[in-house]
Amino acid sequence: MPIDSNNSPDKEKEHENSEEIVAESDSSESNLQNKSTTSDLAIQPGPNMSLAPADLHGMWYPTVRRTLVCLSKLNRCLDADSFRGLAQECVSMCVQSLVKASDSISLRRTTIDGQLFLIKHLLILREQMLPFGIEFLVKETSLDFSPYKNVARSIWEQKGTGLFSLNKENALLRFLLETPNAIDIELDSRRQLDSQLKYTCELLIEQQVLQLTGEMSNFLKRAHSILAAPGARLADQPFANPSYIKEIVSNAHRSLCIALGRSSSSNRPDTVKHHTVPNLRNCLHIYLANPDTENILLRRIQSGIISQWRSMYQLVTDHYNDEDRIIIGCPTESQVNHSFI
User: Fold this and answer.
1) 174 lies in which domain range?
2) What is the pLDDT of residue 330?
3) Where is this chain compositionally biased, Basic and acidic residues type (predicted)?
4) What is the CB-side half-sphere exposure of residue 287 using CA atoms within 13 A?
5) How much is the average pLDDT of 205-227?
């Protein structure tokens, strides 16, 4: 029977990307904490970043640079409680500005450009927050006026009847005596940053897997739905003839090779538009400029792609004869893995 790509162990590994990136950042931050002071903030890139041009402070997004400079100055002249509240709000607004900038870049350039821009600056911001040595968490109290809304609805339903009776059914009296509920809220900008980083990493991996496998994912879902019916034969379906599957497999493998820099633009340009497939390795290196972080993301993308190819190969092996398998020419898992070397 074919392997369901949605339930494979490799699929579950895709969601570990942000935890591994955060864990790597945490280990480097623990070393940095013993060496750094607040004055280091303006001159020292973190150990999780290289000295490539992408890491120079002049290349940081303006709101990130201004936020860190502002915090470094406020930290010298405010007490801890006052600084904590301002720092939490500054970091929260900075994260929001990065998300908006990422969306704009995705519209003007490509989706992967916007996502890698956001990941890069979230890692920078996360690492540069450490020298302050505080929790970016504040507690606020807000008032919930929803009880007034419910009582006001009761007044409207009574429509003047019994509004002056002195009993618990008097909606007007309940409205006058009602009090709002006090709700305590914890605002943690560090948690907001980590959540946004995790979400962006997972979204990047998912979209890259879909892009670099082409129509394979949709074909597998459609094939599995057909095979769920008793006695169904995949080879009898018009969308599953060997020639059509060959085209799907060929285009997906060619897109993967182009994205990994293993194919020139002169190879069979009739079926794949090369300008729509950016070089994945180059994009990761340009934005992240850190081999460890690049490898973490690349491994998760590789895991998702291999899972799709494994399911496709198993499907072809189980439901097509030798002649059809030769026509389809589906590469094995080891052959696809070799593309990443």
Assistant:
1) 145-180
2) 93
3) 9-18
4) 23
5) 92
CA distances from 192 to 126, 141, 202, 341 (A): 11, 19, 16, 36
Indicate whether 117 belongs to any domain.
no
CB 188, CB 194: distance < 8 Å: no
pLDDT (0 to 100) of residue 266: 40
Q: Hunting for tokens 């949709």 — which residue is that? A: 218
Could you give the C-alpha distances from 322 to 220, 308, 310, 329, in angstroms and in order?
20, 21, 18, 10
> Cβ(238)–Cβ(330) under 8 Å?
no
Alpha carbon distance 209, 304 (integer Å): 6
Domain count, the chain: 2
Beta bridge partners of 144: 181
Q: Which of 160, 180, 200 is the last residue of a domain?
A: 180
Residue 169 within any structural domain of the chain: yes
Note whether residue 98 is domain-resident. no
Mean pLDDT of 223-246: 88
Q: Are residues 153 and 235 in the same domain?
A: no
Beta bridge partners of 183: 142
pLDDT tens digits, residue range 22-75? 555 555 444 444 443 333 333 344 444 454 544 566 689 999 999 999 998 988
pLDDT at 4 over 60: no
Token pair listed for 45? 């890139």
Quote the mean pLDDT of the chain. Answer: 77
Phi and psi at residue 241, to the nearest 5°: -75, 150
Residue 325 near residue 317 (C-beta atoms within 8 A) = yes
237, part of any domain: yes
Encoded amino acid at 236, one letter: D
CA-closest candidate to residue 249, choices 173, 192, 320, 197:
320
> Letter for the amino acid at 111?
T
pLDDT tops 90 at residue 190: no
Dihedral of alpha carbons 14, 16, 20, 26, sign: positive
The residue written with tokens 């009880």 in the block is: 147
